Amino acid sequence: MAGCRFVVTSGFLISLDMTCTIIIEGTELKVRNGSSVLYAALDNGFYIPNLCSIRDNPKPFASCRLCFVEIKGQPDPVTACTSRVIDGMEIKLQSPRIARLRKNSFDLLMNNHRLNCQRCDKKKKCDLQKIAKFEHFKLSDTLFRKIDFNLPIDSSHPLFSLDANKCILCGKCIWICQNEGTGQLDFSYRGIKTRISTFGGIPLAEACRDSCTACVAICPVGAFQFKKVSATNA
Prior knowledge:
It contains six helices and eleven strands.
């Protein structure tokens, strides 16, 4: 078994170097055994809404709660990012239960996301807009009362800024910062006050003294944004 890769799912040890057959929406597919349902679907042209998943992260955050699917034999929908494929698995991507769960999760995300799409650098490239279009959701139509903490924008760094009012707490910037960057970003506070911050809340310019901008590249909603360079400074 030297050189083989394994994953534990449902109490069983499964080799990642083997393939298995699964069925997604009636289509039979050969996929890597033990891979996540989310990426098995995405890699084969089946879109599942997701905001927090990172392919290289072995422990999915499952924080956005948008990637619900139904698996035959299981009583309730499950998150696709945390579920592993096994041979013979039958997966359903759309149903009234799935739609209801995704809508509730989307509304919770929008509850404290400040909408300013016209002036956002992520306009037309925002994952929230992509999901809203796919699921036929309205960005401004939420079941919950809007919360705006009016947090200050940290524009101290010369290359980028952080507007925590747009943050959806997906955790992607934290993961990339701790694995490939300076390791300065993490969650702070708890409950509805949870936010992305540097350690001790120090300005980005002090915490991130190098030119790493991985957090900007991975942010799905434009909470992190590059600063615009004027022609006189270019």
